[in-house]
Amino acid sequence: MRHVDSFEIQAPPPPAHNGVPRSAWSRTRRRVSRWHRPYIAILLVLDFAAAVLASWLSISLFEKATAGFTDADKDATWFHTVTYLLLPLGWLVVLWGNRAYDRRYLGLGTDEFKRVIRAAVTVAASVSFLAFSTKTNLSRLSVATALVGAMMFILYGRAVARLLLHIIRRRAGYAAHRMVLVGTLPEALEVHTAVTRSPAAGLIPVAIHLTDGYAAARGIETPVPVYSGRDVLALVREVGADTIAVCGSASAEPGELRRLAWQLEGSGVDLVVAPQLTDIAGPRVHIRPIEGLPLLHVEEPTLSGPALLAKNLMDRVAAGLGLLVLLPVFAAIAIAIRISDPGPVFFRQPRVGHEGRTFRVWKFRTMYVDAEDRLAALVDQNETDGMLFKIRQDPRVFPVGRFLRASSLDELPQLINVLKGEMSLVGPRPLPADDGDFLGDVRRRLLVRPGMTGLWQVSGRSDLSWDEAVRLDLYYVDNWSLAYDLSILWRTIGVVLARKGAY
């Protein structure tokens, strides 16, 4: 952190760029981040190998697969050319056409995987059409195995590649974009906090350019240098950045934003906008231009319908199967708890659930039986704010309970609540029923079922402030989807293994 005590005043910048002379920047063009080029090359190799592997697996599993092709036995060379070259190349072409190699969708979010699935549907439809139009007799089982297998292998390969990319970004700081934040100081600091909380996103703020003057930042601690009165493009070159992020109210100046976009044409510098609608996700926002005026239309959140029915079905099936598979684990944990501290194995506490209904949550007991009696003496040691009480080294937790908490094994009995329909696999965490009336924004959490894991858990867990935790929960309520749930479940695995924020 540093204090802002001085800044450099420059002469007024030259007249604004009008979008015509595009060669001015190229004469002083600098080196920009190109991490995505080798990454895309790796993905191309992985995707091609995945399609080849799926074809080989299909043929190996079904020895008569070659009989599904017309005259395949007579022309084995053509059969192998189609199977191991043309079909994999077709996968790459369709993936490219679905923008599955677009760097904007790589490394973060679910769009990359959605595009792979769309490509798989396209490939399946294309193969079916070609087989029908050429009257080729195909083995349906072998072709289905090859296509579905290719999709699964491609998804798995991309997940592994993304995991390695995230590790490189976290540990070495490579394959990242250096950002200059443009806006007022509070808006820029809010964006800085959001992007630095997730190193896997590959965004590293290196400077802040104030739009409301230097006086607004005098004497305030900032994590990166603060500038004002500078030409933004000159500042980008000076600090070695490759991305400009326009924050909050600065994005509301359409003329300035448009001219800045003109200036960046052909420069290799990315322009991103962090609008004031920070808690509304892309699928709910649609641009509807009227006479050249782009209007952002914000849809209502989806809190009912087929998607919710599918979510409930997935919850019940997963919870039932999970309880059956984990019975030996439950027995081992129960024995360890009874040996550590005689008393009940489970801890049941009233929590507030969907639409304000109260239920009792199931958890493995991690504290001594007299924990409630000792709480009053520890209240002033609380390390969190809001409705929660947390101490990193809580003396009421016995050793086995500390391990259960760190590994999140104490949460597994909540599968019972999920099976009963009181909770979901993903959702806001259920809060104790005696911690308040859930007034104001907090009450909106009750529009969906509480979850065993959620956006709060995968974003920091107990390390987050109460306000930040509420903001994340409300973001989930307003923007949930089945794909988002699967993404959170996947991220939960990494958070649990890292034992981040669990105490």
Automatic annotation (TrEMBL):
Which compartments does it reside in?
Membrane
Q: Write down the InterPro entries for this protein, in alphabetical order.
A: Bact_transf (IPR003362), EPS_sugar_tfrase (IPR017475)
Instruction: List all membrane-crossing ranges.
Output: 39-57, 77-96, 116-134, 140-161, 317-339
Instruction: Please give the GO cellular component terms listed in this UniProt entry.
Output: membrane
Flavoprotein in keyword set: no
What is any Pfam family matched here? CoA_binding_3
Tell me yes or no: is Transmembrane helix among this UniProt entry's keywords. yes
| Originating species | Micromonospora pattaloongensis
> Annotated Gene Ontology MF terms?
phosphotransferase activity, for other substituted phosphate groups
- Which keywords describe this protein according to UniProt? Membrane, Transferase, Transmembrane, Transmembrane helix
Name this polypeptide is given: Undecaprenyl-phosphate galactose phosphotransferase, WbaP/exopolysaccharide biosynthesis polyprenyl glycosylphosphotransferase
Q: Where is the Bacterial sugar transferase domain?
A: 311-497
Its family remark reads: Belongs to the bacterial sugar transferase family.
How is the protein disposed in the membrane?
Multi-pass membrane protein
